[in-house]
Amino acid sequence: MGKQLIYLDYAATAPMHKEAVEAMMPYFSEQFGNPSGQYTLAGGAKRALENARKQIAATIGARPEEIYFTGSGTEADNWAIKSAVKSCRQKGNHIITTKIEHHAVLHACEAMEAEGVRVTYLSPDENGVISPEVLKKAITPDTVLVSVMAANNEIGTIEPIEELAALAHENGILFHTDAVQGYGKLPLSVADGKIAMLSASAHKIGGPKGVGFLYVRRDVKLGSFLHGGAQEKRRRAGTENVAGIVGFAKAAEITFAKREETKEREQKLRDYFIGRVLSEIPYVRLTGSAKERLSNHASFCFQFIEGETVLIMLDTDGICASSGSACTTGQTEPSHVLMAIGLPEDVAHGAVRFTMGGGTTKEQLDFTVERMKEIIGRVRAMSPYYTKFAAREDGCPTEGRTF
Ligand SMILES: *Cc1c(COP(=O)(O)O)cnc(C)c1O
Questions:
Q1: Using one digit for the tens of pLDDT, what is the confidence trace for 232-259?
Q2: Quick check: CB of 70 below 6 Å from ligand 1?
Q3: Nearest of 145, 187, 181 to residue 164 by alpha carbon
Q4: What is the pTM of this model?
Q5: Per residue in 156-182, pLDDT tens?
Q6: N or C: which end of the chain has fewer CB within 10 A?
Q7: Which mutation among 155, 161, 204 tests ligand 1's pocket best, with the greatest number of atoms within 8 A of CB?
Q8: Cα–Cα distance, 24 to 323 (Å, whole number)
Q9: Which is catalytic among the residues 109, 301, 327, 396?
Q10: Known active-site residue 327
């Protein structure tokens, strides 16, 4: 096989849908008006913006006026957490989140902790699931916010956010979900009013980078995040990224129109790939839940190797994968998510994540498995731990064995 690109890192970002790129183009040129302007030219941009808001709102059962466009998923998470805590200061000073959140939530919570807010970080079970029982025990009279992600980016586990949100709601606590990985994949709905805030990002669903949204339930008095002009009902100042927002809405339209079809296709590829890896490579385990799992997500820990080393070798074969979340790349510390699900540190170091999407084919996955078998064998042969281990096992580690 010649050197083709095999992109298996859709959880980090996805290539844009061509239609989304095309939809954006006029807003860079003919329709360049500032949507806040008073003339006809501005009207076109303003209409595009409000149509996009309607389209996005419909995807989660929200009202258009509950959707606020932001500069990223990260910004939406920061806004939700920081502003909710500030606006609830009289009521209480306690946030509940989880140990497996994306850094956008985790570091925002840590920043609040530095300002004197009490934060409880819930532990997941070994599959990465946050159980309602665990949340229930952590709720105190001064809890003002619960933030739990819809699906985890590193291990693909889908969280029971309907139950978690219901529990928070019953106790009069705001519930926020970082739905960046779940949006477009899971049937998320805010229609029953239990979710107070929800974050999503365009570039994870084939839209442009640098655009996100925060859904804020209409009764939630969330303070402004950026102060300035009157955009986004004075809550998020700054001239709107009209082209980006239009591209986001187009990507959402395409993604939601074929959500079921995509899920079926991806699940088949995912299960095929996971099956081959687990049966053909020894000393490997799947991380995250086998059942409650994103349809495009396959993540593993290979014993006796460093995930980073495997990534570099895969890259020379044109294969793009990840060792955890992109944000932790370059750090040598094992992933906080893998530690939270109770993996020993040496095992967590062997993490490799493959996430699939529209461009993924069975042939690409077959090629990837073949390369993985060769690479992992080669890396292990250089590992003194493995050589010692293999010697104990009569130099013949059993094929297909997991640990
Ligand atoms: C990618 C991601 C984010 C950050 O979104 P950006 O738009 O890249 O800032 C937040 N949370 C999760 C779960 C993600 O996967």
A1: 999 999 999 999 999 999 999 999 999 9
A2: no
A3: 145
A4: 0.95
A5: 999 999 999 999 999 999 999 999 999
A6: C
A7: 204
A8: 33
A9: 327
A10: yes
